[in-house]
Amino acid sequence: MWLCNTWRDYQILDLANGDKLEDWNGIRVVRPDPQVIWDKRSVPKLWETADGVYHRSRSGGGSWEFKRNLPERWPLQFEPLGLSFHIKPTGFKHMGLFPEQATNWEWLHNLITRENRPIRVLNLFAYTGGATLAAAAAGAQVVHVDSSKGVVTWAKENLALSGLADRPVRFIADDAIKFVERELRRGNQYEGIIMDPPSYGRGPGGEVFKLEKELFGLIEKCGKLLSDKPLFFLINSYTTGLAPSVLSNLLYLTICKTKGGFAIADEIGLPTTCGKLVLPCGSSARWQAKK
After folding, report:
1. Do the beta carbons of residue 262 and residue 289 sit within 8 Å?
2. Where are the beta strands (DSSP E) in 67-207?
3. Is the dihedral of CA 220, 226, 232, 234 positive or negative?
4. Dihedrals φ, ψ of 151, to 5°?
5. What is the DSSP string of 169-238?
6. Rounded to 5 degrees, what are φ and ψ at 119?
7. pLDDT digits over 231-273, tens only?
8. What's the chain's average pLDDT?
9. Which of 105, 122, 141, 184 is deepest in the core (most CB within 10 A)?
């Protein structure tokens, strides 16, 4: 499992009863997580310190219960890369960041910084820009694509908060598949591609995306956007039914077949402060060119 052990502003304090107790730079929240199927709390009294609890509804969705007044949003820093983010509770239990992805941010940042050449990166389903910021901080030119105008604006704000507003980043609110198809027609190319697709989602025009149905074709199309000297390709999946080996097989059948190189895949996760518990947070597959 690929773990990120370098967070300071974010911690998982405990896991139990289908929930995780997290500390987001001093603000503690309880959120549901389907991977937490045990009922024993490691440190029961810690749960009493939560500032907010997300309660899932039986009919779908849920709502927040706040124990005290919280700021509308607050900053969170990922110190190893000097990145900063605005954090706020959303109606869908999310906080505006997936901290487990920091292990991938460090990986792609290191790859880019070792290159003595211009690197163009396409980030699809880019959300609030964690990978975009990591690539931009390493010196890459980045195209950031997400179907939600709201999270694209949020990503722009995170870029500025990180002191990277002058970096060459294009922010685009668009359907990922349609954007890729237009890029193919335009003949644009990239040295790195990142995709973090949802299991199920809708584009700005109501387009439906189902991961298992669309992913192989999308990877094939994205492979054609890679330049003659590509650097990396990263896929993330939160769908519990897709094992890491499925993602590495997809990269082998597409990117490795056309560009060579090698692909590896694993679970990604986050450690807890309460002992040896680790929270699994999906899978990632990484392709990179051979030197």
Report:
1. no
2. 74-78, 83-87, 120-124, 141-146, 169-173, 192-195, 200-202
3. negative
4. -75, -25
5. EEEEES-HHHHHHHHHHHT--BSEEEE---SEEE-TT--EEEHHHHHHHHHHHHHTTB-SS--EEEEEE-
6. -125, 125
7. 999 999 886 567 899 999 999 999 999 999 999 999 999 999 9
8. 93
9. 122
Q: Enter the tokens of residue 157.
A: 């704000």
What are residue 14's phi and psi, to 5 degrees? -165, 160
Helix, strand, coil fractions of the chain, as percent rounded to 5: 30, 35, 35
* 23 φ, ψ (degrees, to nearest 5): -115, 115
Average pLDDT over residues 274-289: 93
CB 33 within 8 A of CB 20: yes
Angle at 273 between CA 267 and CA 278, to 5 degrees: 20
The position carrying tokens 């900063």 is 84
* C-alpha torsion sign, points 239, 236, 90, 81: positive
Shortest CA distance to 138 belongs to which of 224, 80, 77, 196?
80
Distance (Å, whole) CA 22 – CA 36: 14
What's the angle, vertex CA 262, arms to CA 232 and CA 260, rounded to 5? 85
| Residues forming a β-bridge with 22 | 12, 29
**pTM reported for the whole predicted model:** 0.94
Distance CA 266, CA 251 (A): 13
Would you give the DSSP letter of residue 119? -
Contact 108, 134 (CB under 8 A): yes
Segment 213-225 shows an average pLDDT of: 92
- Residue 47 CA to residue 289 CA, distance in Å, equals 46
